[in-house]
Design brief:
The complex is a heterodimer of chains A (about 110) and B (about 120). By secondary structure, chain A is mostly beta strands. Chain A has no helices and 11 strands. Chain A has a single domain, classed as Immunoglobulins (Immunoglobulin-like, Sandwich), CATH 2.60.40. In chain A, the strands form 2 sheets. In chain A, strands 2, 4, 5, 9, 10 and 11 form a 6-stranded mixed β-sheet that branches. Chain B is mainly β. Chain B starts with a strand and ends with a strand. The chains are: A mainly beta (about 110), B mainly beta (about 120). At the A-B interface, β4, β5, β9 and β10 of A face β4, β5, β9 and β10 of B.
Chain lengths: ~110, ~120
């Protein structure tokens, strides 16, 4: 069964606004990773956050992790049309090499 | 340093034919993972291989699917007697070790269409 579940399934916002996507998971993890996938394309790794970290930044991206709630959020600030894509969270458990994926959030940035 | 390479990028097969998908990991990476992505879904783990060894194939269908990672050459995911339900994007990833805190680097994927 899916470990991660992204919320919302789809999000449509105006360019320049902030976009927030959430991911919930079920079991203890070693780390959680966010990926972007443009339509019909490959996967781009965005951020990896370890279980002992609470927040991480990369450019316009901010990821938080709350292990007590088993949830993570991805915030994209000042969104651009090029941010239009599907965003996936994937979890890696201790001593487990499998990445377990959610179904993704489809983000549309309207110009 | 070239990234993970997969070929072909697109593959069309008729029902009953065989599909061979190839993956060359990043230089220095000896761990390869295959994932399948059905339309509008996330990725599902299929198999994890090291050179000449299948470590975990728990995500792979028991019939028609096989994978190898020979001492020389790319990793191969082979699907025999393809059916329409095999249509999907197949992604390969590699890492330098199996440890979960290591990022897996993904290839561009092979999109298989079964007619």
């Amino acid at each position: 069964s899916q470990q991660g579940e992204e919320d919302p399934q789809a999000l449509s916002i105006q360019e320049g606004e902030n976009a927030t996507m959430n991911c919930s998971y079920k079991t203890s993890i070693n780390n959680l990773q966010w990926y972007r996938q443009n339509s019909g394309r490959g996967l781009v790794h965005l951020i990896l956050i370890r279980s002992n970290e609470r927040e991480k930044h990369s450019g316009r991206l901010r990821v938080t992790l709350d292990t007590s709630k088993k949830s993570s959020s991805l915030l994209i600030t000042a969104s651009r049309a090029a941010d239009t894509a599907s965003y996936f969270c994937a979890t890696a458990m201790d001593s487990n090499y499998q990445l377990i994926w959610g179904a993704g959030t489809k983000l549309i940035i309207k110009p | 340093n070239a990234g993970v390479m997969q070929n072909p990028r697109h593959l069309v097969r008729r029902r009953g034919q065989e599909a061979r998908l190839r993956c060359s990991p990043m230089k220095g990476h000896s761990h390869v993972y295959w994932y399948r992505q059905l339309p509008e879904e996330g990725l599902k783990f299929m198999v994890y291989l090291q050179k000449e060894n299948i470590i975990d194939e728990s995500g792979m269908p028991k019939e028609r699917f096989s994978a190898e990672f020979p001492k020389e050459g790319p990793s191969i995911l082979r699907i025999q007697q393809v059916v329409r339900g095999d249509s999907a994007a197949y992604f390969c990833a590699s890492s330098p070790t199996f440890k979960s805190y290591n990022e897996q680097f993904f290839g561009p994927g092979t999109r298989l269409t079964v007619l």
